[in-house]
Amino acid sequence: MAKYCFGIDIGGTTVKCGLFETNGTLVEKWEIPTHKKNGGEQILPDVAETIEKKLKEKGISKEEVAGIGVGVPGPVRHNKLPFAVNLGWGEMDIGETLGGLTGLPVRAGNDANVAALGEMWKGGAEGKQSVIVVTLGTGVGGGIIIDGHIVEGSHGAGGEIGHAHVEDDIHDPCGCGNFGCLEQVASATGIARLAREEYAKKDPKEKTILEIEGVTAKTVFDAYKKGDALAERVVNRFAKYLGTTLASFSVVVDPEVIVLGGGVSKAGDVLVDIVSRYFRAVAFPAIKQTPIVLAQLGNDAGIYGSARLALD
Amino acid sequence: MAKYCFGIDIGGTTVKCGLFETNGTLVEKWEIPTHKKNGGEQILPDVAETIEKKLKEKGISKEEVAGIGVGVPGPVRHNKLPFAVNLGWGEMDIGETLGGLTGLPVRAGNDANVAALGEMWKGGAEGKQSVIVVTLGTGVGGGIIIDGHIVEGSHGAGGEIGHAHVEDDIHDPCGCGNFGCLEQVASATGIARLAREEYAKKDPKEKTILEIEGVTAKTVFDAYKKGDALAERVVNRFAKYLGTTLASFSVVVDPEVIVLGGGVSKAGDVLVDIVSRYFRAVAFPAIKQTPIVLAQLGNDAGIYGSARLALD
């Protein structure tokens, strides 16, 4: 009976690695640099090497390892992906390549989807099987888990929830090329955009503690917590976009719980409260009470989720 | 090896029944009345009786039957449901009750979800595994199929896509109690609503062939096909609501195909064309080319889908 598994979260700068017991206990975590030169050809061999070293160091045999899960920034489907720009990769069969190097079973997933699986396993949605996870960072990412499994989607675009269209009145493009994506109004940068818009519209006599120069999602939420009226308008606009969109997603998925993560989620309970208010205002009656909670694993969600994927 | 299965679609007036071969060939279909008296206590015994009679008539033994699938108008989860208003039912364990009466394996699902499964099996999405089906009738229903399985949802509300919030400026309630649901602008009745709104707004000098008295989705699409400018505005508003919402759903599910069914879909290719145009305008790049097609099974989708469910 396999006792261990590895969770590997490959990012553009570092590869986060975790050795886990199959019950979800994190034994040890560490990082190695991501070597992107020559089309990222060294990345998976480096991963294989660090795993071999860790096994030797801990005196663990391969028979004791259920497998390796890998999260990567790209549209993974069936353990392969057509490209991963941030790693320099073209087409890559992660399962075959890393499996061949290590002799261990390998399962791969998109990094945001895998992080969602981590929150389901040992984070904000622990014990649940159907979950929407939204990551509010520089962009808006996320993952959809149904009956314990990631929704990969037929083009590997399942859970690309930052790119729901929510606003006709945005005329500069999103990173994806479209106009008016959720990401443009609900990410950290989106919240700063809304703050600049509201600041430009405000009555010159209105006082605000918000410094518009260098405004961030954090300074907006700090001002909101202090009762600043401008910040309140910004946070309400943000929360209406996000809460309404989550309500729409919820008539598709009807999840047990919705998890909010990423840098913006450091705002804490006030974030959950205001998003829940807009969610409930328009959510289908049967799902109005669906709990919205904070993510718990922070930057470790990826290694937890990829370790969980290895057990699938 | 079982050769047959039954598909049973229980509606408020009639129960549609189908005897199928397990490869999806419809052997025979028929209907019995839905007896709703005494809390609908007779409905499942009537179903059991008609199945027993059909088996005898055809000389089929129960060993040859894989099972019975049942579609019902209510929030089914794990073969049970808490209520089905249109049938007079309170809490009902369909699997246990009908299984007990027939001695055959029984699987139950929500009628709209089951119809979606039918379209996946032998209709507009044949050969696909991940599908969004939208039924544009008196209301807007639908079903989400991922990897060949219905998304039931944690409250049995998976696929309740008619109740996505799409319009803040509607002040009369939807059947669900909310305001501004997709159903209020994209069902047959919703299209008639939009027609009345656009008619009221039009310049009195503008001519239209649309008879606003007794306007229906059909008369709107008929006028649209003849190039009527008012009908064009109505159809464009409808298609923008629907296409944009389907694009949002598609970043959750990333389906292989989207199927449009229900009475409104009789408008045919012009419906597909205009909805596709608004879908593509805002859909995430990887999914812009997701085909949107017409449903093919009409009122038989329910018996096909429930028969398919019996094979799950």
- Count of helical regions of chain A: 10
What is the molecular shape of chain A? Answer: elongated
Overall pLDDT score of chain A: 97
Radius of gyration of chain A: 20 Å
In short:
Chain A is α/β, with parallel strands linked by helices and 312 residues long. Chain A has helices at residues 37-40, 43-58, 94-102, 111-122, 183-186, 188-201, 217-225, 229-253, 269-282, 301-310, and strands spanning 4-10, 14-21, 26-33, 65-72, 80-81, 92-93, 106-110, 131-136, 140-146, 149-150, 257-261, 292-294.
Provide a descriptive summary of the structure in words.
- Two copies of one chain form a homodimer.
- Helix content of chain A is 38%, strand content 20%.
- The first copy, chain A, is built from ten helices and twelve strands.
- Chain A has two domains: 4-121 and 300-310, Nucleotidyltransferase, domain 5 (2-Layer Sandwich), CATH 3.30.420.40; 126-295, 2-Layer Sandwich (Nucleotidyltransferase, domain 5), CATH 3.30.420.40.
- The mean pLDDT of chain A is 97.
- Chain A has a five-stranded mixed β-sheet. In chain A, strands 10-9-8-11-12 form a five-stranded mixed β-sheet, sandwiched between helices.
- Chain A is elongated.
- By secondary structure, chain A is α/β, with parallel strands linked by helices.
- Chains A and B meet through α8 of A and α8 of B.
